[in-house]
Design brief:
- The protein has 19 helices and 34 strands.
- The protein is an alpha+beta fold.
- It has 6 domains: 76 residues, Arc Repressor Mutant, subunit A; 64 residues, Arc Repressor Mutant, subunit A (Orthogonal Bundle), CATH 1.10.10; 166 residues, Rossmann fold; 103 residues, Elongation Factor Tu (Ef-tu), domain 3; 110 residues, Translation initiation factor IF- 2, domain 3 (Rossmann fold, 3-Layer(aba) Sandwich), CATH 3.40.50.10050; 94 residues, Translation factors (Elongation Factor Tu (Ef-tu), domain 3, Beta Barrel), CATH 2.40.30.10.
- The strands form 9 sheets. The protein has a 6-stranded mixed sheet with strand order 9-10-8-11-12-13. Strands 15-16-21-19-18-22 form a 6-stranded antiparallel β-barrel.
- Helix 11 links the parallel strand 11 and strand 12.
- Helix 1 crosses helix 2 and helix 16 runs parallel beside helix 19.
- The longest helix has 38 residues.
- The radius of gyration is 33 Å and the shape is globular.
Length: 722
């Protein structure tokens, strides 16, 4: 027998690759990772060791059984002590007749039910029903229902198969004052369902439980292609790599210049298919994950050998780690003279990625996207990683997938790129996705050719929508048009009613309450003005010790707080800590919409103290800063009596005369103070809305230039409630 890889032997022995690596290294055999190879002699050594350990376990079990049998035999041989009986006359005279106590079994059962309703119901419980007299009690498994949060009482009754008045009565017994049209929160749904003997599993979107199909047996599942996203720093060769792969594979198009119609495409290799997602970067990748979509199986991080590890490279690594997706590193531009891959691997180690050559588990391939050197090996590593993941799907069921991107095209209407994850999508299928529904009128592949069906891991353009979905929305084929329309309408209603609840994320102000409810981790994103400040702040935060909660810095970087940081915080439920920096206007709008907590500091110890106080529940009322409007300086007027006036165009929000304002030039804050005057034409005004021009005078600041950005904001203290 030839050489075999570690993960293949581990699979055969039914153990993890990590456990097998420890055993092999114990024999003195040098192996780096699960991709390393073992010769037949090493495999035989491992097999004999496991057989010996199994035999030792069997012998130990047999000895325990023998000891137990001997102990039981000894107990059985012991004589039973006799108890002297009292004379009947004495017994009758001494005993006073007592009235038999009557136990209300129904009241006891009701009390037990209420107690169970207040307990942790996350685990599956087994119930016992009372059998007829003469029979043993029979254990039965609690039934399971899949529901979305905020169901009405009437909808919950339908799921439970009960009448609404029965569910209402149960709610009243639990102290819930509701009516049939009132919506129940998560805890109330669990408690009521428990009263009727049901366990509850919550789904992310309304209607997911209605269109759910039974999972096919493992034998009926088919292997599917891996879905790969390529990320990295700008100009490190992501696009060049994708272009080379497309040119060298027939299925992706003809030789030469290729016009890619959709943001995903397939590649046919000797070892199987691979589906690539051509996203704009980690922002789109994380935006999809923030909406609950895990569309990617493998992430390829491209690093240029002549430019080393850059800020966007670190961001891409952090985003991939936060998503829990396997990483493959591709060191690009190895065709250039004088480049050294070892220096790149050294910087990758500092970023938390240790490659196999350096004793880690991350696969690293040296390539040149320009000449094609190493690209075939990179594709081979992708297929090997996919084989290790054992990716399978049910190709027979109704199609399910995720929206990659959506747009409106003239003459075609709304067009969305769908990645089919399970089942087979066909022309004419009714579907629901996010807040909208439709029927598949036409499907196209990445070359613009019409197709009639698409299986698992296949990207296609779909036409036939009633509205434009968002990237990351789930896509599911329904039984008929009516079901799709009803689910979409209900989702729109729930979206309007509960949007503010769905957007809420952890903040420092409510951290102590989260700790009391069981939270055991605080995720942080740290941004600073220079690298030294970031390192100092991270070291200070890492020194905070707590038995209740641990700190996890999932990303650190230099520069202003941008939209990518807010997206990562939203997806990972993290808090953003900024030192000596401001938030970009787009990031401010996004954090308001996503409900992400952004804290900005100028002194390190203040940030550390706030984290400590939040963990102990002593955080003082925070000063909440709200950006209300932005304006761009188009012209500067200098008047002898008044001074410099910024002729500005309000780009977003509203500029108010009583608000504070900061002036930004190339992302740097040059002024932070009050508005001296606000005019529209020659009239003093109280505020100016977006889309209008105005003249703005700043209190004590004259150094105004064209293209400066004026950002108006308000500051208020928000009291913390415990």
């Amino acid at each position: 027998m030839g050489k075999r890889r570690v993960y293949e032997v581990a699979k055969e022995l039914n153990i993890s690759s990590v456990a097998l690596l420890e055993v092999v290294r114990g024999f003195g055999i040098r192996v780096k990772s699960h991709m390393s190879t073992l010769d037949s002699e090493a495999v035989e050594k491992v097999r004999k060791k496991f057989e010996k350990e199994k035999q030792a376990v069997k012998e130990e079990y047999a000895r325990k059984m023998e000891k137990r049998a001997a102990r039981l035999e000894t107990v059985a041989k012991k004589p039973v002590p006799k108890v002297a009986k009292k004379p009947p006359e004495k017994k009758l005279r001494a005993r006073v007749p007592r009235r038999k106590r009557v136990v209300d079994e129904k009241a006891v059962r009701e009390s037990v039910k209420r107690t169970l309703a207040g307990m942790d119901v996350s685990r599956v419980r087994r119930r016992r029903r009372r059998a007829e007299e003469g029979e043993e009690a029979v254990a039965e498994e609690a039934k399971l229902i899949k529901v979305s949060e905020y169901l009405t009482v009437a909808e919950l009754a339908t799921r439970l198969g009960r009448k609404p008045n029965e569910v209402l009565a149960s709610c009243l017994e639990l102290g819930l004052m509701v009516n049939v049209n009132m919506r129940l929160d998560r805890d109330s749904i669990v408690a009521v369902a428990d009263e009727f003997g049901f366990e509850v599993e919550f789904v992310s979107e309304y209607g997911s439980e209605l269109i759910e199909e039974p999972t096919a047996p493992a034998a009926e599942l088919v292997a599917r292609a891996p879905v790969v996203t390529i990320m990295g720093h700008v100009d490190h060769g992501k696009t060049s790599l994708l272009d080379y792969i497309r040119r060298s594979n027939v299925i992706a198009g003809e030789m030469g210049g290729i016009t890619q119609h959709i943001g995903a495409y397939e590649v046919e290799l000797e070892g199987g298919r691979v589906t690539f997602l051509d996203t704009p970067g980690h922002e789109a990748f994380t935006a999809m994950r923030a909406r609950g979509a895990q569309a990617t199986d493998i992430v390829v991080i491209v690093v240029a050998a002549d430019d080393m590890v850059m800020p966007q490279t670190i961001e891409a690594i952090d985003h991939a780690k936060a998503a829990g997706v396997p990483i493959i590193v591709a060191i690009n531009k190895m065709d250039l003279p004088g480049v050294k891959s070892e220096l790149v691997k050294q910087e990758l180690t500092k970023a938390g990625v240790v490659v196999e050559d350096w004793g880690g588990t991350t696969v690293c391939v040296e390539i040149s996207a320009k000449t094609g050197i190493g690209v075939d090996r990179l594709l081979e590593m992708i297929l090997l990683q996919a084989e290790l993941l054992e990716l399978k799907a049910d190709a027979v069921r109704r199609a399910r997938g995720v929206v990659i991107e959506a747009k409106v095209e003239q003459g075609r209407g709304i067009v969305a790129t769908i990645l089919v994850q399970e089942g087979t999508l066909r022309i004419g299928d009714p579907f629901v996705s996010g807040l909208f529904y439709g029927r598949v009128r036409a499907m196209c592949n990445e070359r613009g050719d019409r197709v009639r069906e698409a299986g698992p891991s296949t990207p296609v353009e779909v036409l036939g929508w009633t509205g434009t979905p968002q990237a990351g929305d789930s896509f599911a084929v329904t039984r008929d048009d009516r079901e799709a329309r009803e689910i979409a309408v209900k989702r729109q209603q729930l979206h309007r009613e509960h949007e503010y609840r769905l957007r809420r994320h952890m903040t420092l102000s409510d951290l102590y309450d989260e700790i009391k409810r069981g939270a055991n981790e605080l995720r942080l994103i740290v941004k600073g003005d220079v690298g030294g400040s970031v390192e100092a702040l991270c070291d200070a935060l890492a020194g905070i010790r707590s038995e209740e909660v641990k700190l996890n810095i999932i990303h650190r970087g230099v520069g202003t707080v941008n939209e990518s940081d807010v997206l990562l915080a939203a997806a990972s439920d993290a808090v953003i800590i900024g030192f000596g920096v401001r938030a970009e206007p787009g990031a401010n709008e996004l954090r308001e919409r996503e409900g992400v907590d952004v804290r900005l500091y100028k002194v390190i110890y203040e940030a550390v103290e706030d984290i400590k106080k939040a963990m102990s529940g002593l955080l003082k009322p925070e000063r909440k800063e709200t950006v209300i409007g932005s304006a761009e300086v188009r012209e500067v007027f200098r008047l002898s009596k008044v001074g410099a006036i910024a002729g500005s165009f309000v780009t977003s929000g509203t500029i108010r005369r009583n608000a504070r304002v900061r002036l930004l030039r190339d992302g740097e804050v040059l002024f932070d103070g009050l508005i001296r005057s606000l005019k529209r034409f020659k009239e003093d005004v109280r505020e100016v809305s977006a889309g209008f021009e105005c003249g703005i005078g700043l209190e004590g600041f004259e150094n105004i230039e064209v293209k400066d950005v004026l950002q108006a904001y308000t500051v208020e203290e928000v009291a913390r409630t415990i």
